[in-house]
């Protein structure tokens, strides 16, 4: 599953540079995660880096975008080909 940022985000800017897929960007009010680019860092790291650095723990699993580990790996491989 991709991740999403809740409205508890304090716009601290620490998550965006940690995302290896450039899935995080500044939205109108808070940072947002593009579910088409989020792989939970599968293919890059063992754990989602944005969750590791978030000081308010506002980055959660997005239940609206369910994906298996294999699907996240396939998405990672597709993203890498586009870069």
List the helices and strands and how they pair.
Layout: E1 3-5, E2 24-26, E3 31-33, H1 49-53, E4 59-61, H2 69-82
Characterization of this structure:
With 83 residues, this protein is an alpha+beta fold. It has one domain (3-82): Alpha-Beta Plaits, CATH 3.30.70. Helices cover 23% and strands 14% of the residues. It is built from two helices and four strands, in the order βββαβα. The protein has a two-stranded antiparallel ribbon. A two-stranded antiparallel sheet has the order 2-3. A hairpin with a 4-residue loop joins strand 2 (24-26) and strand 3 (31-33). The longest helix is centred in the C-terminal third of the chain and has 14 residues, at 69-82. The chain is globular and about 30 Å long. The model has no long low-confidence stretch (mean pLDDT 95). InterPro entries: 4Fe4S_Fe-S-bd, 4Fe4S_Fe_S_CS, PSI_iron-sulfur_center, YfhL-like. Residues 1-29, 31-64 form the 4Fe-4S ferredoxin-type domain. This is Ferredoxin. GO terms for molecular function: 4 iron, 4 sulfur cluster binding; metal ion binding. Pfam families: Fer4 (PF00037).
